[in-house]
Specification:
Elements: H1 3-29, E1 47-51, H2 56-66, E2 70-75, E3 90-91, E4 94-95, H3 96-100, E5 105-110, H4 115-126, E6 130-133, H5 139-142, H6 147-153, E7 158-163, H7 178-184, H8 205-228, E8 232-237, H9 238-244, H10 247-256, E9 273-277, E10 282-286, H11 290-299, H12 303-307, H13 314-319, H14 321-332, H15 337-344, E11 351-353, H16 357-360, H17 364-368, E12 372-377, E13 381-386, H18 410-417, H19 422-430, E14 434-435
Parallel strand pairs: 1-2, 1-6, 2-5, 6-7, 7-8
Antiparallel strand pairs: 3-4, 5-14, 9-10, 10-11, 12-13
């Protein structure tokens, strides 16, 4: 058969399967729950093959799982995802780190260095919609699992590669680490106290930003396939994600030649717009316009500052930043944070405390927004992790499955997804091509 004809038939077949899946999902899931919301989720029926570990990739696939995708996480037999050992703290046998980004996933333990293991993953790719991987560029090609190879047998596949610097280019061969990419991208250069050294952000923001970009790109890929019937390759990397997130800092340099510097909690172009030490903690005040500055002065009983010609406009306040901030800082230090919050209430001036993590999860708005998600883990017992950041009017993300133990679902996936017989599964287990955890 002509290759073009075969390709067209393959696309038509997959388009039919998409329509069939969509229709069956509608019939199956348009059932209101007790709150009147439908139980259907956007990615119900979408299969994601997850060949990622650590943070950027698992964060992306976790969000896809929250939205209804069936995520199968492929792990190394024995050790699994690197972050399983990243502790303390541990909750039972699992690290809190791993538990935080791996809900709503099944785990299969497969030895990809074994040709039978690579063949198994190829078969999973054939029945999957999305594959996400974060291997060093070229590594999966050596195993026969690169995009070019898998697109031949799975033309419908949205194949998302996450790397440090991109799939091609002078630095593409280097492994990707959040701290290094944060440094190379300029993120560390602009983070830290005004007179201090560069500082790494408190969480791996470059990894997390890349995970968010990857999740969004996968969603775009699924829409692309819906329109064209074809899969595609997504090149998502830490360097590009973080440089793109420099936004106005990058634009300041590219358009005005202005080099960035560190400002601590302050803003380079707005004053006062920063954190202040109080009698018992810290408070951030953000006076974004001249009227708000007048209100700040009124709350602080420093009305004379609002009348001072040096501080009449934001441009003047930026010019006389140091003198003004010294006066404001002295006043803020005289009262506790709660008292300042009380005085600012209702003024229209944006402000908030710099909370400890304990205070964050004691905040009633955090609880109301569903940002504490509880699950019962098979070995760790009851666990709590940060919940999803986005809420939807027509469905809820409120019935998560707990992060899996290594190889918890190996037999289940081989039997139910690939249709392997018990004899074949037992042969793979005996040869250690795959392993199954006792908890299943």
């Amino acid at each position: 058969m002509d290759a073009k004809v075969l390709s067209c038939l393959t696309r038509l077949r997959h388009s039919f399967l998409l329509v069939k899946t969509d229709c069956s999902s509608v019939r199956r899931t348009f059932i209101p729950d007790v709150k009147g919301r439908e139980t259907i989720r956007p990615l119900d029926g979408v299969r994601v093959l997850d060949l990622t570990r650590v943070l950027a990739g698992p964060f992306a696939t976790m969000i896809l799982g929250d939205l209804g995708a069936e995520v199968t996480k492929v792990e190394r037999p024995g050790s699994g995802d690197d972050t399983r050992t990243w502790g303390p703290p541990f909750v039972g046998e699992e690290s809190a780190y791993f538990l935080s980004v791996n809900r709503n996933k099944k785990s299969i333990a497969v030895n990809l260095k074994d040709p039978k293991g690579a063949k198994l993953v190829t078969e999973l790719a054939r029945v999957s919609d999305v594959l996400v991987e974060n291997y060093l560029p070229g590594k999966l090609d050596q195993m026969g699992l690169g995009y070019t190879q898998l697109s031949e047998v799975a033309p419908q596949l949205i194949y998302c590669s996450i790397s440090g610097y991109g799939q091609t280019g002078p630095q593409s061969h280097k492994p990707g680490y959040d701290s290094i990419a944060s440094a190379v991208s300029g993120m560390m250069h602009i983070t830290g106290s005004e007179d201090g050294d560069p500082v790494r952000p408190g969480v791996a923001m470059t990894d997390l930003a890349t995970g968010l970009y990857a999740q969004g790109a996968v969603m775009a890929g699924l829409l692309w396939r819906q329109k064209t019937g074809r899969g595609l390759h997504i090149d998502c990397n830490l360097l590009s994600s973080q440089v793109a997130c420099l936004t106005h800092i990058a634009a300041n340099y590219l358009n005005a030649g202005q080099e960035a510097r560190r400002w601590g909690t302050a803003h380079e172009s707005i004053v006062p717009y920063q954190g202040f030490r109080t009698k018992d903690g810290y408070l951030v005040v953000a006076a974004g316009n001249d009227l708000q500055f007048i209100k700040v002065c009124k709350v602080l009983s420093l009305n004379e500052l609002a009348e001072d010609p040096k501080y009449k406009t934001n441009t003047l306040r930026v010019q006389h930043r140091r003198d003004l901030l010294d006066l404001l800082a002295a006043r803020f230090s005289e009262e506790p944070t709660a008292e300042w919050l009380r005085r600012f209430e209702g003024t229209g001036v944006p402000c908030g405390p710099i909370n400890t993590i304990q205070q964050v999860f004691s905040d009633p708005q955090v609880a109301y927004n569903g940002l504490i998600m509880e699950m019962v883990h098979p070995t760790s017992g009851r666990i709590s992790v940060p919940g999803p950041a986005v809420r939807f009017s027509s469905f809820e993300i409120d019935r998560p499955t707990p992060p899996p133990v290594i190889g918890q679902h190996t037999i289940e996936v081989l039997r139910d997804t690939l249709g392997y017989s018990d004899d074949v599964i037992n042969q793979l287990l005996a040869s250690r091509t795959v392993t199954q955890n006792a908890v299943h």
